[in-house]
Amino acid sequence: MKKVLFLIVFLAFSEVAFAQEKPGLLITPTRVLLDGRTRSASVSVANNGNVEGTYAISVVNRRMQEDGTIVPMGEDEEAIEGEKFAIDMLRISPRRITLQPGEHQNVRILARKPADLEDGEYRSHLNFKIVNEDTTEREKNSEQTDNSLIISIKANFGVTIPVIIRQGEVFASGQINDLKLVSNDDGSKSVEFDITRTGNSSIYGDIIILYKAKDGAELILKSMGGLAVYAPNKNRKFKVMLDVPEGVSIEGGTLEVQYKSKAKEGGEILASKKIEL
């Protein structure tokens, strides 16, 4: 029994040590748009953890699936119809940085567009990955102290952000279709809908789901920011859990989904759809 208790305490302590001693990764902004005469930008990389972190930065191609998931592409995978990548036009510096806890550094992005570049939108992604340069030393440490075993796991966490280049005449519009309210088995409510995109560029904005009662009272049931439908995708499917306050019924009245551009881009409604409940 004592051995079992010791093992539980040992594992718990090791997990706490791992949770507390790791580099962090904070990227701002989370989307880069280069259009018109704008050919350069900077992205801030910050270590919001509590140990030194080393970060590798690269340009990669990603593809959006119908449910909004962003997935990697194989090295030999070719673009599908309407898909334009920016990877050959992007230059980044530096490609590897080391940051102490609380430090940040800018990564500079430069777009080199060829003179004969066709009109349209070109997209690739910056991949930021935490890498472990000191695996050997950590493995040595794991042999010296019991609670460092779990810390010797090689860090491999990373995030990607889109970098979009727009050339010449670009346009896009969106429409919300197939909106319906769903009652789930646990008593919660969710909505399902599609956003359909047309044009030669992506659409990007925030989603707000509103309930308007018969007496005119309005309630925001969900707000989500920074959602895109990337070209060449024509459609993106959504299923969203609603935050209905306890004791509030949304039977009767009107449910509306609004897809709006970001506030700094005007906050205009790109698409909306209502259903009567």
Integer count of domains? 2
Oligomer: single chain
Question: What does the main sheet amount to?
Answer: 5 strands, mixed
State the shape: globular
Please tell me how large the radius of gyration is. Answer: 24 Å
Structural class: mainly beta
How much helix, percentage-wise, in residues? 10-25%
Number of helices: 2
β-strand number? 18
* CATH fold title of the largest domain: Immunoglobulin-like
> In whole angstroms, how far apart are the ends?
59 Å
Placed side by side, the strands forming the largest sheet appear as 2-11-10-4-8
Instruction: Give the averaged pLDDT, no decimals.
Output: 86
CATH architecture of the largest domain: Sandwich
Percent range for β-strand residues:
over 45%
Supply the CATH class of the largest domain. Mainly Beta
CATH superfamily of the largest domain: Immunoglobulins
Segments where pLDDT lies below 50 for 5+ residues? Answer: 2-19, 135-155
Order of secondary-structure elements? HEEEEEEEEEEHEEEEEEEE
Write a concise keyword list for the protein shown above:
globular, Immunoglobulin-like, 277 residues, disordered N terminus, 18 strands, five-stranded mixed beta sheet, mainly beta, 10% helix
Note down, in words, how this protein is organized.
The chain is mainly beta and 277 residues long. The protein folds into two domains: 23-167, Immunoglobulins (Immunoglobulin-like); 172-276, Sandwich (Immunoglobulin-like). Helix content is 10%, strand content 48%. The strands form five sheets. A five-stranded mixed beta sheet has the order 2-11-10-4-8, with no helix packed on it. The radius of gyration is 24 Å and the shape is globular. 21% of the residues are buried.
